[in-house]
Amino acid sequence: MHNKSISELSAGLRQGAFSSVELTRHFLDRIARHDERLNAYITRTEEAALAGARAADARIAAGEAGPLTGIPIAHKDIFCTDGIRTTCGSRMLERFTAPYDATVVSRFKQAGAVVLGKTNMDEFAMGSSNETSYYGAVRNPWDTTRVPGGSSGGSAAAVAARLCVAATGTDTGGSIRQPAALCGITGLKPTYGRVSRYGMIAFASSLDQAGPMAASAEDAATLLQAMAGFDERDSTSAQEPVPDYSAALGGDLAGVRIGLPKEYFGAGLDPAVAASVEQAIDEYRRLGAEVVEISLPNTSLAVPVYYVVAPAECSSNLARFDGVRYGHRCEAPRDLEDLYKRSRAEGFGPEVKRRIMIGTYALSAGYYDAYYLKAQQIRHLISDDFARAFREVDVILGPTTPGTAFALGEKADDPVSMYLSDIYTIAVNLAGLPGISVPVAPADGRPVGLQLIGNYFQEARLLNLAHRLQQATDWHKAAPAEFE
Amino acid sequence: MQWETVIGLEIHAQLATRSKIFSGASTAFGAAPNTQACNIDLGLPGVLPVLNREVVRMAVRFATAIDAELGRRSVFARKNYFYPDLPKGYQISQYELPIVGRGHVEILLEEGAAKRIGVTRAHLEEDAGKSLHEDFHGSTGIDLNRAGTPLLEIVSEPDMRSAREAVAYARKIHQIVQYLGICDGNMQEGSFRCDANVSVRPMGEDRLGTRAELKNINSFRFLERAINFEVERQIDLIESGGKVVQETRLYDAARDETRSMRTKEEANDYRYFPDPDLLPVELDDAFIEAVRSDMPELPDAKRQRFSEAYGLSAYDASVVTASLSLADYFETVAEAAGDAKLAANWVMGELAAALNKENLEIGSSPVDAPRLGAMLRRIADNTISGKIAKQVFEAMWNGEGGADEIIEARGLKQITDSGAIERVVDEVIAANPQQVESYRGAEAAKQGKMLGFFVGQVMKASQGKANPKQVNELLRQKLS
């Protein structure tokens, strides 16, 4: 049952082959059986899930079911959920329960999806390995000595091990695509503004974007359909109409121009990963696409720019966690200064503190022009690179990450090497473009992700390209044996 | 040495919107603590601000009123600092690109001359909450009802040269925002707050001296006092060999002094940067045109019109246009009375005194404008005398009804029947033979004054109701 697609499950529910309660129990059982090894969930919501499943069954019986009604999913623990704790992977919010639902959460509620729980993540989405979570590292279902990637590592591992049908994630510099690649699933970061950020705890507001993480492009399309659209509570959400993503699947690739940025295939790329990507490129050629080399000359500036912009915004976004109104407060503060210092010192982990300090520095008087302003200027250059490329090609293709999943602890003490694992994904956020990671042939038994980058609001095209590859190959169907 | 004072003001005008600048919570004053703070005002994780369009309209109105350049593209920025009543750890304000650019207003100096004061800029921002230090036994209470209330911060050029000028400028801005209907101007409730940047320099010097910023000033009177104290303090300091340091000083009204709050070194580095949660505000021509075509009459124009249409002196016109509510009151009275000068005298005299005595604003006057106007019409048509009118006014003030009702009930109608007046005059003449004799024997120049005695007696005998003009005429006739 857990290896079925959303449309198969939805058909099964409507035909009465099984109920949503049965389906939900099946996934709850799997979580109970397997999650101790993976630590993909921070909070499990068995009772709420079963209540949701019963409601979904009633809706199905009444003939009012949509494609997600009764489908068990999981939310990254960065989305506020009314009445269910939201930790954001941090000690700071260990006992925080929001009094409201994020827009993404309420849209899935309206669609009738069943929520199994809240998935693990790097603390405040800051990390590329899920090791910065206060709730412990998540393990990669393909090799539990390795990381699942991050920051949406819990969602990626849960989908890969089939501890949920699909999950939500957020992506600020690669946090959906990189763990999707490392766990062998499909993950889409939509265009900035495509999905509302309301109720999603902010890391870097100008980069954050929520998206679907699923077993296939087809499933991802169904999820995105529920998530996308303008929200009056988010001024940065786009008024752009939402197309029918599922209807766009299956479109012909003949004549589609795919650009390979030479900067994405240079030094630093694991040859085994490169080989897997090459195989997929050959598939696209067979499907009728035209493949050309392009250049994104400012690629090497993306990581340094990101590590000014994202920390700068986070230093401000995380100021609200001060121990005054909610969240962790230190014991017996002597005075206000002490309350601030100890609450924050105790509530935040080292990576979060590192970024707050970098960001505070970058915005300080006398440094602002040299760092923040300069970074914003370079950000424009990076966007211009893509704009030029999209005058020549329809879509850009490359590896999602330079290597496969690394061992737990391998990069934990080397932030720069960790930051470089997002080298191919970060520029996409800086430009606000959509990007999708699709599993291709594994390397050394570990998943490899292929990234497709589209022009603004071209999610349908990306999903179609991913879908055509998944129709032509079986790479996305591979499942980690240990969790069968 | 001769010193010159240089003053610039930063005025925070709370915009009179129903809901907050970035949330739908109410802005009403005086609700129980934290009952008007929604998820957004509380700065909960995940919430986002959405700009209230009304504040933009109000800012554009203000820009139009002070003939300012408009920031066609203005940007909200975050001003980062930690404070318990600042829920997000930053205040959303405007920094490099404000919505209102350079403009100016004219103030009237005592000598009657006008002076132009430059406005550097005005920008939109959200207010913080309030920290409550009383009643919490060593702890601090936080009330976030005010958090997110829209403010327009109006920054002047350092164009003022005395406390008086500063007050005149502050009053002018106060008057304009009220006329525009964008601020209620209530200084007690903090809807209109002034900070003053004050420095001194030797007369003739071009460079500005080091300034102190004075805060916590909640009336025009205190603004004048705080500046005067500070100017004296700075001059004394320099003359005794000291140096003024750049700092923020709090005005203590009880002691009538300013005290250092923090120096420049202790000042926060606010780490301003554009708020990524809000789009830049782009003003299009249609929006600006719509605001401009819907502007109310402004104070200067109203003053001019009053002085022309109602024949008021420049002084009277400026007094009755001091606030929009007073001007509206006056205009209603004048129309109803049919005599503008009489209306001006009453509004600025009897009414102002009565309001002042009970510490009331014009808006809460027990005698409304139509009633006062109706009473003044009874003076103009000789139904009552000005003196009787004071009695009628007092009765109206005490809630005894309208003028006609009171005149009727108390029998205050003026006696204009010459036969009736003549009878009283004859009685008075008959009862005072001695005075009559001395009057008749006096020189013409002195008679005028002596006539007053007889007028007084007649008025007394008629309980003030005899028409004074007729009484005078009859007495003159009969005594000659």
Describe this structure in words.
- The complex is a heterodimer of chains A (484) and B (480).
- Chain A is of the alpha/beta class and 484 residues long.
- Chain A has one domain: Amidase signature (AS) enzymes (Alpha-Beta Complex).
- Chain A is 39% helix and 13% strand.
- Chain A has 15 helices and 11 strands.
- Chain A has helices at 6-15, 20-38, 46-61, 103-111, 153-160, 177-183, 217-227, 271-286, 302-317, 336-347, 350-363, 369-392, 415-419, 426-431, 459-472, and strands at residues 41-44, 72-76, 114-119, 166-171, 186-189, 209-214, 257-261, 290-294, 395-399, 435-443, 446-454.
- In chain A, helix 7 (217-227) packs antiparallel against helix 15 and helix 9 (302-317) crosses helix 12 (369-392).
- Chain B is an alpha+beta fold.
- Helices cover 40% and strands 19% of the residues of chain B.
- Chain B is built from 15 helices and 15 strands.
- Chain B has helices at residues 53-65, 163-179, 220-239, 285-292, 299-309, 314-320, 324-337, 340-357, 369-380, 386-397, 403-410, 418-431, 433-441, 444-461, 468-479; strands at 3-14, 73-74, 76-80, 90-94, 103-108, 114-126, 130-132, 141-143, 150-156, 192-202, 212-217, 247-252, 257-263, 273-274, 281-282.
- An 8-stranded mixed β-sheet of chain B has the order 5-6-9-1-10-11-12-13. In chain B, strands 4-3-14 form a 3-stranded antiparallel β-sheet, with no helix packed on it.
- In chain B, helix 2 (163-179) packs antiparallel against helix 3, helix 7 (324-337) crosses helix 8 and helix 14 (444-461) packs across helix 15.
- Chain B is elongated and about 90 Å long.
- Chain A: It is an enzyme of class 6 (ligase).
Strand content of chain A: 5-15%
The number of domains of chain A: 1
Mean pLDDT of chain B equals 92
Count of individual helical segments of chain A: 15
How many DSSP H or I helices of chain B?
A: 15
Structural class of chain A: alpha/beta
Largest sheet of chain A: 11 strands, mixed
Estimate percent helicity of chain B. Answer: 40-55%
- Percent of residues of chain B in beta strands? 15-25%
Organism (chain A): Candidatus Sedimenticola endophacoides
Domain Amidase (chain A): 22-463
EC number (chain A): 6.3.5.7
GO biological process, one term (chain A): translation
